[in-house]
Structures are given as C-alpha cells and as structure tokens.
Amino acid sequence: MWRVLFVIYSCLAFCADIGSFVVMDARTGRVLSERNAHQKMYPASTTKIATLAYVLSTPDLDLQQRIVVPKEAVRILSDVEKSRDHFTHYPSYVLEARSSLAGLKAGEIITLEEAIYGSMLASGNDASNTLAYYWGNRSIEQCVERLNGFVASLGCLNTLFQNPHGLHHPEHISTAYDLALLTRYAMQNPLFRKVVSTPTFTKSRTNKQKEMVWNQTNRLLASGPYYYEYATGVKTGYHARAGNCLVAAAENQDRSLIAVLLNVPERKDLFIAAKSMLHKFLSEQKVERAIVQEGPLHLKKALEGHSVPLSLAATKGMNIAYFPSEEPKVKACVEWNSPRFPIRKGQEIGCVHLLVDDEEIDKVPLVSQEERSATWYQRFLEAQNVLRDHRGKVFLIALAAIVFFFWYRRRF
Asked: Taking residues 339-358, what's their average pLDDT?
C-alpha cells in the first residue's frame, strides 16, 4: 500500500515540472494520462523515431548493405555561422558544432545496420542524415518531405519535421500525443523493437576509422539508479529550446505502455518521472465485471395480446476484465425474434448483443422460461400479421375468387 502511494506521489511531484506528457496503452491506443498532449513542442532527437520507422517501412531490407557516408550528412556549421544564419540560408539538416554525433566521416563505408544503430543508440545526427540521404534518392530534403507524408498517414496531424534528426528549427514541431502514436506504430516492427532496446552496439573497423562502441542513452535500460526492469526502449532527446525529452516503452504481462515526456528541465527527473508514470499503470490489477449472468433475468418480453410479460433466461454468462484506468464503455442491445405460438419453454426469443467501446464482442441467446398458448386476440393479431405480410398474395387470391364468382353466375 505504501509503495503504491509513494509511486503516485512521486508521479504527481515530477509531473508538475513537465511541459507536456502522455501515457498511452500501446495495444488499444487509449490515453491513460496526459497534460498538454496536443500542444505543439520541439521534439529534439525523438524525431529519430520517425526517421527509423520510415526506413524500416521499406520491405526486404538488407542490413548488411554497404553505404558511403555522404559529405552532406556530416557537414557542420560553426556556432557563429549558425547564429548569423537564422535558418534562412543553410538547410535545417546541416549539423551544429556541439550537436550529438555518431562520429561518422565523409566517404566512410558502413553498413545500413551501423547507420541505424548510430542514429538511435549514439543519437547521431550524422547517422540520421546518412539514412535520409539514401531514403530521399540522395536528397535529405526530399526524404524529410516524404517523412512528413509518412507521419501524417499515421494520424500525426500536429507534426511537421524540417530535418531527420531533431536539431532546432522554429517550425520543427510535434506533440506528445503524435510521438506516442508514431511509437505505437514503430514498436510493432520487431527490428525497431530490437534496435531501441539494445544496450550497446559495436561498429566495425572501416576504411576511415577504428572499431567504435555506441551506448544506449535511455537510462531506463541501463544498470543504475534509473533502471526499470519492464522498460523496452525507446529514445531520448535534448537541445536547449526543447529541454529534455523522452519516449519510453514498458511491458508487464499482457500490458504494453508508451510514455512521452517533453520539455523537462532536469535530465535525471526525465527518467524518474517516466519510471513513476509507467509503474503506476503497470502495477494495476485487472478487475472483472459481469455483464450478463447465466440463468433467469429481470428482463421480460411484452407480448401483444398478453397482459403478463414473458419471463426470460440467458443461456450463458458474459464477463469482461479490464484495468481500472481503462474501464471500457459497455452497451447491451437486445434483438427480438418474432415468436410463433404456442411458445415452448427454452424457445429462443431473441439475443443480447454485447458491445465494448462500440465493438461487438459476443451475443447471448435469450430463451423463454415458460410456455404460452395463443389467446383469441393473439390469433386475431397473428391473422392480421399474415394478411399484412402476404397482402399481395391475398389480393390476388381475392381477385381470382371474385372473377370466378362472376364467371360462375354468368354461366349458370
């Protein structure tokens, strides 16, 4: 009990300093907790989630394919040049002197796999540029255009990227919700899941450099004070205007969650808050709720011509299980048959359609608990129904009878 209260208190305390956050169920897409989830903010290097998701959407990738690092991918501006430019002359993908790099060199021959891990583990802006160069037909800007179309197709309607890595540009924006939506899609790819959960990766010796080791920047995955046993990825981010950012994923038993935190002042608070948020929901226990119970029901069926309604029973029970933070909207719709008299005990009178969040999950047959014979009034109503249902045939029979009657009279 005290542990649960501490987790909730910790979560509330850290949430106060977070510019924007969202916790989403990765399987259902349901938002469990949020603040300013749709507010446009700078995503920093969490942008690389989109770049990798776009690259991995290509079928039949050969991870050992060799590629040459282009000059455009590693071009660096000095702080002086960058401050004078004001995003008017140089493309947004051009690197900054003190930005996060994988350490690639122009003309270096690496594998596609190494470019991927350099982008995600080392958070290398040069590696992201290299991927974008080849996925934009040797144009990084063209890749960014395609990347924006790709994320829009996933429903990320408040996202617009100006580069493939997340370096600052005033119009390079996204939201906590969009990043969660994007990550939900990306985590369905086994290779993406493998990359973003890998602690370290060793880049082989190349024509330009010695062997190099890249370490995971997501400290929820690394041993230490912020380690979280259920963490499965995904990506950190930082620049001065964006603050500290994190997209984190975690799984426990049959629950999979995504937490997105944007603009957190202190880096250590980023991991503490994410861990608290994820643990709050992963520690929940499912509750079970009976929707329909097998046997006699309070529900009764009114019968035309009968003053006493017909008693009913359900042929089976129906329960649903859910986490308290995800209580679904449950609806039951009854569909009646048109019973013919006499009604026998156990005869199916209708069924209950059970809908959870507007999706039908089952139907339960309803049967009579008693026998009923037709009254004279009921027989009259049945005759009316027969005439109504077959009025075309009745009209033809009546017309034929009248014609026959007049023909018979004339003849005899």
From this structure: 87
Alpha-helical segments (H) within 235-284:
267-282
Q: Please provide residue 218's backbone torsions phi and psi, each rounded to the nearest 5 degrees.
A: -80, 105
Predicted confidence band at 402 (pLDDT cuts at 50, 70, 90)? Answer: confident
Q: What is the CA radius of gyration of the chain?
A: 33
Reference 372, options 315, 297, 312, 293; nearest CA is 312
Q: H or E segment at 332?
A: strand 330-336
pTM: 0.80
Distance CA 39, CA 209 (A): 43
Alpha carbon distance 364, 366 (integer Å): 7
Looking at residues 129-142, what average pLDDT do you find?
96
Q: What pLDDT sits at residue 22?
A: 97
Do 256 and 203 belong to one domain? Answer: yes
8 Å CB contact between 310 and 372: yes
What pLDDT does residue 271 have?
95
Nearest C-alpha neighbor of 347 from the set 336, 334, 357, 332: 336
Q: Where residue 82 sits, what CATH number does that domain have? A: 3.40.710.10
Q: Dig out the tokens for 149 from the structure.
A: 């179309």
Based on the fold, state whether residues 48 and 179 are members of the same structural domain: yes
Name the residue range of residue 364's domain: 288-368
Taking Cα atoms as reference points, which of 97, 104, 106, 145 lies closest to residue 115? 104
Q: Rounded distance, CA 122 to CA 99, Å?
A: 11
